[in-house]
Amino acid sequence: MLEFSPEVANTVIKTASYIAAGTALIAGVGPGIGMGFAAGKATSAVRRQPQARGPIITTMLLGQVISGSTGIYSLVIAIVLIFGT
Amino acid sequence: MNPGPQIVFYLFGKDYLPITDTLMVGWLTVVIILILAKYLTSKMSIRPNGKQNVAEFIVELIHGQIEPMLPNEGWRFLPFIATIFIYIGFSNLISLIPGLASPTGDLNTTLGLALTVFLVVQYEGMREYGVWGYIKSFAEPVIFLLPINVIGELAKPISHSFRLFGNVVGGGIIITLVYQAAPALIPVPLHAWFGFFVGLIQALIFGMIAIAYISVAKS
User: Fold this and answer.
1) What are the two backbone dihedrals, phi and then psi, of residue B20, each rounded to the nearest 5 degrees?
2) Which among A75, B49, B72, B166 is most buried, taking Cβ atoms within 10 Å?
3) Cβ pairs bridging A and B (under 8 Å)
4) pTM, to two decimals
């Protein structure tokens, strides 16, 4: 059985958690695509019915926020990985 | 550099009831809101003057957000939703003052707010359908969906609180990183973006999602 000194183990854990934090932020791709899609649809909706601008923007923001949750989760996990270990 | 709350002192003895800097800034926010509300609503008249116009504008703005989603109940929910709006808005704006940590950059604050919203949602659902009727609505349309519905309901306060917390802390970390690279002038537009725009949008979003949860529980 291989034994590491505490310093080596600490460095390995720190390195691994930094790499993991960077990898976790790949999750930002999905919300980006989803929110952009919602914004594009809202733009064409405003183009079709300019008088319904207020409710469209409200609905768009609500949907974007819900679809943006996964990105926020990955951000929180990355923060915990960097500052928690 | 370490984001999140820093313990300033302990209220009792050596390690009971830690008081963090975010908690103290939260108290400061409450005092500022109290003074501002008292000032804006003093000497009200039937013909509004300058400062009363501001107060009426804020109240009507928030009421206009609630009324479309909860018809005819805008005034009943106004105190609760307006408290969320105004407290989170001021908490995010107060981080523009250098040296003050935003109270919403602390998971304790956001989780507390989200749990309050969660309790209100449960109460409103039970008020609409009765206690047993509300509990039974989790087992619809088939009984097999009961665990999924319960987990979905319990996930609401978690995602609700982490959204605000993640946005505020993420913005704070980016601003801190830029301060280390370029301490002068360059962080100013970042403060405008993360402090003003994201801060106010997140306050609006938190309140609107609270309204949406309540209206889902009542429909």
Assistant:
1) -95, 165
2) B166
3) 41
4) 0.83
Q: Where in chain A are the domains? A: 8-84
In this predicted structure, what is the pLDDT of residue B3? 59
Whether the CB-CB separation of B86 and B36 falls below 8 Å is answered with no
The one-character DSSP state at B103 is: G
Which residue intervals of chain B are DSSP H helices? 21-40, 50-69, 74-94, 107-129, 131-136, 146-181, 187-191, 198-218
d(CA A49, nearest CA chain B) in Å: 19
Answer yes or no: is pLDDT of A43 > 90. Answer: yes
**Residue A80: its H or E element:** helix A69-84
The rounded distance, in Å, linking the Cα atoms of B88 and B142 is: 39
Distance CA B135, CA B148 (A): 14
The candidate with the shortest Cα–Cα distance to B89, out of B67, B61, B115, is B61
Does the structure show a pLDDT above 70 at B4?
A: no
User: Under a CB-based contact definition with an 8 Å cutoff, are residues B89 and B65 in contact?
Assistant: no
Contact state of B2 with A83 under an 8 Å Cβ cutoff? yes
Residue B168 backbone dihedrals phi, psi, to 5 degrees = -70, -45
Q: Tens of pLDDT along B50-74?
A: 888 888 899 998 998 888 888 888 8
- What radius of gyration, in Å, describes the C-alpha atoms of chain A? 21
Q: Do A61 and B163 touch (CB under 8 A)?
A: no
Residue B33 exposure: Cα atoms within 13 Å on the Cβ side: 18
Whether complex ipTM tops 0.90: no
**B163 closest CB neighbour out of A61, A69, A79:** A69
Q: What is the three-class DSSP state of B10?
A: strand
Interface with chain B: mutation pick from A69, A77, A81, A82, highest number of B CBs within 10 Å: A69
What CATH number was assigned to the domain covering residues A8-84? 1.20.20.10
